[in-house]
């Protein structure tokens, strides 16, 4: 394999394979390679193996814009998503460009040669690859470790303690009492899945509630549209419908939070047993979409509670005991297995560091141009999806924009492109989002600006128009 390519993509997950497919179909003359630290493609969808793992966004928007999602599930299981990603890689010839076992540690830009030199660890050795353009598609999760706070007394617990990110393949929960600590997307997925695996009982132990909204497992509109228009004709229509519905729900949440709070509560009450204490266990103190809403297919979590297979306890942990968890209220939860669904850790650019002409780049000191490039860092792009919509909606837009930039550079013989803010642009946190994993990593993330094109809207409809129509000669991007 060549040690120099036109474009070097880091990460062979949903974003990286999508980026590579865009290069293949839109810029076939460009040479590229994909560096993947793990031994398999698929990223998140290959890493997470806990029971019930599935999407928390509908698949008609989590799927690529250029390749229809052919399944009939709105919220698909992890294995189906992994197959979809790998089939896309095969269809576009991406697989032959992936170099596995290449964990990128550092990337150094040299203005004299207008090239990146990327250092990767391969079987304990260092390997260097040069590229004209570097594209980080490693997401922002730490794949080696999840967020795992220490609990008082956990060392004396005599059962099994497991984090979902490192789920043992041989863990059998049949006839066992399981406590799942957490209330986010992973927890609400695990609880009904573990109940279906025959656990004696599953308890979701949460410090505070999360908004949980039932969603039909299968999109009936998609099925009807596919029957009439066929797969390719229906996909853009279904995708557009789901984008509009999700955007409307988000905007209503931000402007009329009491209305959405009431709608969610009404849906919860309808699916839970009569007299269930909804306001204790499913009424958060924050407004909808201050944190991400949790979607449950066909209300499976509520069904597990109604059937008596699962329960929810809202309390805090005082200490672990030999046989379970003792709560601040004095209640004791007996457990054979405790699952710490306590969240994720962020890791920007897969943990790789950047330097420009020998000077180390601190991402937090840089401003994000259109949430995809860093101020003062030439020939570099990164892909990060939306927090309030499907990841791939933004990933596709980033890919389209990067293709435009690369086409412009090749057409005009430009060697470098770099975004530069003027002194009037003030910085602000990149993500206006109150999730714990964002708060914990705020000091690591780049900033956004207060005005376009530095301002991040978190609005797909706005971005779709802005990014596809925006002039590259915007006074910010400098081509040389």
From TrEMBL:
Enzyme Commission number: 1.14.13.-
An MF annotation (GO) of this entry: monooxygenase activity
Keyword Iron attributed: no
Coiled-coil boundaries: none
One Pfam family, short name: FMO-like
Top EC group: oxidoreductase
Named cofactor requirement(s): FAD
Record-linked InterPro entries: FAD-binding_MO, FAD/NAD-bd_sf, Flavin_mOase-like
Superkingdom of this protein's organism: Bacteria
Key words, A-Z: FAD, Flavoprotein, Monooxygenase, Oxidoreductase
Family: Belongs to the FAD-binding monooxygenase family.
Name the UniProt record assigns to this protein: Flavin-containing monooxygenase
Origin species: Nocardioides zeicaulis
